[in-house]
Structures are given as C-alpha cells and as structure tokens.
Specification:
The structure is a single chain. By secondary structure, this protein is mainly α. It has 20 helices and no strands. Helix 9 crosses helix 10, helix 13 packs across helix 18 and helix 17 runs antiparallel to helix 18. The radius of gyration is 23 Å and the shape is globular. It starts with a helix and ends with a helix.
Length: 539
C-alpha cells in the first residue's frame, strides 16, 4: 500500500508538470511577442489589472480547491464515496456564487482601481479580465474533485486547453487592436484570459460527463445515509479554505501594494511619471514573468502532495507521510535551483534573447531578473511546504508565516525603492526577502508538526553542487558561442543547452536522484533500467 501511495504522488506530479511545460511554451508565444508588440508602456497597462484579478481569483482557486481535494481524499480513503461527491456538489454551488460576485466587482471597479494606481489607461485591460473570474472559479470545483481522487489528468488537460485559447485569442486581439492604441491592444490581450477560462471549463465539464458512469458506480458503494449534512460540509470547506485563501491573497495583495508604491515612490525621487511606469513595466512585465516559469512545475508537486499527504495522515501511515514530505521538498529543490542559478548566470543574455525589439528595456530589466531569480529557491520551497501543512490540517500556519513575510516586503519596498541608487530594484529585493523569511518559518513548522527530517546534503547540498557546475558550463558555453558566431540568440540557446546537459549528468553523478525514485514516475521503470545500463557501461 505504501508503495502505491508513493507512486501516486510522483506520478500525478509528473502529469501536471508535463502540462505545465506545455503551458509555459505556449505562454512564451504569448508574452514575448506581446512585449515586443506593445512595449514596456503597453505592458504596464496590461499588467496593472492582474494583481487585482489575481486577488479575486485567489478567493476561488486557492483555498476551496485544496479543501475539496483534501476532503474528497479523506472520504475516499475511508470508503465514504457518496459524501465525497457531496463535497464536490456543495463546493460547485459555492464557487458559482463567488465567481459571479468577483467578476462583477472587477468589471465595475476597474476604473477606480486603475486611476488609484496612477495608470488610468489600464482601465479597459483590467475590465477585460472580469469574465475569466467566473469561468475559472467554476472550473476550480471540477479540478479539486478530480485531484481529491488523485487523478491529475483532467486538471492537466483543462490547463492546456485554457492556455491554448488564452494565447490564441489574446495575441490575435492584441495585434488586431494595436492600430487603435496601446490601451485597446492591452485590453485585447487581457481578454484572452476569458477565452481560455471558458475553454478550460468546457473541457472539465466534458471530462466529468464522460466519467459520470464510473463516478456513479463508486458513489453507489457508499451509503446515502452516512456522513455530514450539506450545511456542515459547507462549513468544513470554509474552515479549511479560509486560512488558505487569506494566505494566498497576501502575495497578490502585496503586488497590488507594489502597484501603488513603486510608481509613486519613483516619481517621488525624481523620475517622470512615464519613466516610472516603464520601470514598473520592466519589473512586472519583463522580469517577474520569468520567475513564475518554474512555479508551475512546483505547483504540480504541491497539488499532488495535498491529497497524498491528507490520505497518509488520515490513515496514520507515518512511513508514507515522511517519504512524501522529503521527496516533495527534494523535488522542489531539484527543479528550483537550476532555474534560479541559470537565470542569474545568464540574466542579460536571456532578456536580450526574449525581447530583441526592446533592447534598452531588456538590459535595464536584467538586474531585476538577477535579484528575483534568487527568490525562486525560497518560493518553490514555500509552495511544497505549504501543501504539506495543508495536507495535515495546519492551513493556518503558512498563512501566518506569509503574513510575517509580507511585513518584511512592505518595509523593504518602501525603504529601498525610495533610494535613488536602488530605485525599482528595491521592490525585487523586498520580494526575495519575503520569500526567504516565509520559507524558513514553514520549514520549522513542518518539522514541528510531522517530525520529518530534511537531510541537508540530500535536499540542498547535492543539487547545489550540480547547479554550480551547470552555471559554469552555461556561462562558458554562451561566451564561446558568442565569440565564435556573434549571435546572442544562438549563444543563449547554446549556453542553456550546455548548462542543462551538465545539470542532468550531475544530478545522477551526485546521486541527487536515484534509480528507485525514477521508477516511481510514469514509464519510470524504463528510465531506471536505462540509467542502470548507462552506469554499468561507464564502469
């Protein structure tokens, strides 16, 4: 039984991670061309509404799907299939209401919000995001239900279709509306989120319909007389979801604070309003999206961890619980560290590669990328540790820890952004400081409540040795190709390829990943055998 549970976590994470890679590749075909089409000023219009949108979205997609996943998983583990499905139905009704209310608030409040940020030109782009709130909120109920059944494929498929339509519709509208001005082009790009949300929701409804026969068969195994009332289930959802939602709302809220602080603070130290907006666009439109790239992979780990941890904790299976905690943290570091050090090592070449038509802004944004990249390690750890705490019913703890980190963020941003020599880099430093403080507090909490150990060498030192070799190889590869061909694009791709190959080799050389762990992935037995043959040949 334990082995099966181990496989379910890594297998589900692999499915979601694969979808995440596809999504990010598609996203590159959206954000990079969009930045080149509308520039840093247009990106400031496009980005301004997202902190408020994300704050509203957090209410429906942060805590409630986790609550559904955990409650369904616990009831499935106890054989209470009928009640598990009632959890889904109750949550679906709740999310229909939340989606409608939040979409209305965003649509009608867009003008006041954009004006308060000092960027009234962002009103249309902010308003265009409103329909997405409804579609994505309803979709979250379906995702939480399937995740609670430890079936990650429906979530993965809906994410891919959501991104395909977001990119296709958003980029098409941005191009078509460019002639009417940057405000219209940014609004067209924003509306892509609504098209994507609708596509993702329809995908989930279709999958649910196809699965209905097997769902009904499982429900018939559980007694309809057992379990809690609808009102009690709703109360349980709220009790679990509320602290998760509050905790998840802190970062979008901080990003909203950044919108209010950064531009006004820069103007206060002598920048013109246009220059301040462009610096804000470089921070949020050029550098910040790259930091979010690895987080979709870490989120795949987190989503898969919650039901697995919850089931093991419910059954008091200490061995499986400890295994998944350690493996989740190690996997997060194995993904996060190369992303962080790779971006730090090639920050300027990467920015110039992605934004060739905005070279001045790309060079200016490179130091921001360098600073923010360091925070990838801590943010990735936060996501994994938060999922563990949520799985064991300690959802209040990460909320409190992030709130403490938020205080650090506000103090750092207010103080450092007002120093002319630091300017917008102060907001980036404040973000990294927030992640670091929250990460440490979450580590302490997980150890306290589970007694799980995090072996320093296996979790941190071995991946760090691997990325040290990787970074050296990436920089050397970039410089060599640049000297030979004089093309930054080819040199950047070559440097990344060299660094990636070195890292893959090093994680096996340092035994950061073992054949036994490979075998737990989908088709992992073949990978483990291949790895074993490679080692035997080497000997």
């Amino acid at each position: 039984m334990t082995n099966t549970k181990k496989k379910s976590f890594l297998g589900g994470a692999a499915v979601l991670a694969t979808a995440a890679i596809v999504i990010k590749i598609l996203g590159a075909f959206f954000r990079v061309p969009l930045s080149n089409i509308i520039g840093s000023l247009g990106m400031s219009y496009y980005q301004t509404g997202y902190p408020l949108y994300n704050l509203f979205l957090t209410v429906s997609t942060a805590g409630i799907p986790v609550a559904i996943s955990r409650m369904v998983s616990e009831r499935q583990a106890a054989g209470r299939y009928y009640e598990a499905h009632r959890v889904f139905r109750t949550a679906l009704a709740l999310l229909l209401v939340i989606g409608a209310v939040s979409a209305s608030l965003l649509f009608f409040g867009a003008g006041a919000y954009a004006s308060s940020a000092g960027i009234p030109e962002a009103t249309m782009a902010t308003r265009a995001l409103a329909p997405a709130l409804f579609f994505v909120s309803v979709m979250a109920a379906f995702r939480g239900y399937f995740q609670g059944n430890q079936n990650m494929k429906p979530t993965a498929l809906s994410q891919v279709f959501e991104q395909v339509f977001r990119v296709g519709v958003g980029l098409t509208l941005a191009v078509v509306l460019t002639g009417k001005g940057l405000e219209y082009a940014a609004a067209g790009a924003s509306f892509g989120a609504a098209a994507g949300g609708l596509a993702g929701l329809l995908t989930m409804i279709l999958i649910y319909g196809v699965s209905k026969k097997s769902i009904d068969a499982k429900i018939r195994r559980g007694s309809r007389e057992e379990g809690s009332s609808g009102a009690r289930i709703l109360m349980q959802i709220v009790i679990i979801a509320l602290p998760i939602t509050i905790g998840s709302s802190i970062m979008p809220l901080l990003n909203m604070i950044d919108v209010q602080i950064v531009v006004n603070r820069l103007v206060g130290i002598g920048y013109t309003p246009e220059a301040a907006k462009e610096l804000f666009g470089e921070l949020t439109g050029f550098a910040q999206p790259l930091i979010n790239l690895p987080q979709v992979l870490i989120q795949a780990i987190a989503v898969s961890l919650v039901p697995t941890i919850a089931a093991a904790f419910q059954q008091r299976d200490r061995e499986t619980l400890s295994f998944n905690i350690q493996t989740g943290m190690r996997t997060a570091m194995i993904i996060a560290m190369p992303c962080a050090f790779g971006m730090m090592s090639l920050s300027e070449p990467i920015m110039l590669f992605l934004y060739p038509r905005e070279q001045a802004s790309a060079v200016s944004a490179a130091p921001l990328l360098f600073i923010l990249a360091f925070g990838i390690i801590f943010l990735s750890g936060i996501q994994a540790l938060t999922a563990i705490l949520q799985g064991i019913g300690k959802q209040n703890v990460p909320m409190i820890n992030l709130l403490i980190g938020a205080v650090v963020k506000v103090v750092c941003t207010l103080t450092l952004t007002g120093i002319p020599s630091i300017n917008v880099k102060g907001a980036a430093i404040g973000t990294v400081a927030t992640y670091f403080v929250t990460f440490l507090l979450n580590m302490i909490a997980v150890h306290r409540y589970t007694q799980a150990q995090f072996p320093l060498v296996q979790v941190f030192v071995r991946p760090l040795i691997s990325v040290a070799f990787m970074s050296a190889g990436a920089v050397a590869g970039h410089r060599a190709i640049m000297a030979l061909l004089g093309s930054n694009s080819l040199a950047t791709l070559g440097g990344v390829a060299v660094g990636g190959a070195i890292y893959v080799a090093m994680i096996f050389i340092t035994k950061t990943i073992t054949p036994q762990e490979l075998s737990m992935l989908p088709k992992g037995d073949k990978l483990a055998k291949l790895f074993g043959r490679a080692r035997a040949t080497k000997r």
